[in-house]
Amino acid sequence: MERLFDLDPQLIHDTILLAISVLVLFAILSYLLWNPAKKLLQDRKDKIANDIASATSDKEEAAKLKAEYEAKLKDVDKEADAILAEARQKALKNETKIVNEAKEEAQRIIKRAEEEAVLEKKRVADEVKQEMVTIAALMAKKVVTANIDTSVQDSLVDETLREMGDSTWQS
Fold first, then answer.
1. Distance from C-alpha of 152 to C-alpha of 143, rounded to nearest angstrom
2. What torsion, rounded to 10 degrees, do the Cα atoms 155, 158, 161, 165 define?
3. How many helices (H) and strands (E) does the chain have?
């Protein structure tokens, strides 16, 4: 009799052995390959989860740092304004001090100039007196040389004094 599939005991035996070997091979390979592959995938999944958590914490920390730096920048602006205000106050004090010193120096210069003017006036007055003495000596010489009598000499001295005036002697 001819069989359609030729199912004889040898074929069944070979098929069962093949099925058992495939199952054993599948079990061994799954143990050897599936578990490491599963572990590799789990490790990768854990690493990705850790990376996401780390990125989230880094992002939160960056946001905190940004807020902190923005607050510091605001404080820096306030501090800069305070420093500038203090510098302006010092500049105004220095300006006032310099102006006062300049006024004092101007007063000293004016006082010195006035003193020099008084001294110059005295010197000129002394020179005028010396001139008068010289003129008087010349007049006396002329009087003596001309043998003028005393009445003429007195009239010349009086005339000279009137011409010079009292204001010349006083200034």
1. 9
2. -120
3. 4, 0
Report the alpha-carbon distance of residue 144 to residue 141 in Å, rounded: 5
Contacts of 152 (CB under 8 A, 6+ apart): 143
| pTM > 0.70: yes or no | no
Residues in Cβ contact with 156 at an 8 Å cutoff, skipping those fewer than 6 apart: 139, 143, 148
Separation CA 72–CA 5 (nearest Å): 88
Query: And the tokens for 155?
Result: 């009239």
What is the pLDDT averaged over residues 106-126? 93
Q: Which two tokens stand for residue 169?
A: 């002697």
CB 170 within 8 A of CB 122: no
Of 160, 92, 101, 93, nearest in space to 132 by CA? 160
> Mind listing the pLDDT tens digit for each residue in 64-95?
999 998 888 888 888 888 899 999 999 999 99
Structure tokens belonging to residue 43: 């490790």
* 3-state DSSP assignment of residue 1: coil
List CB contacts of 136: < 8 A, sequence separation 6 or more.
157, 160
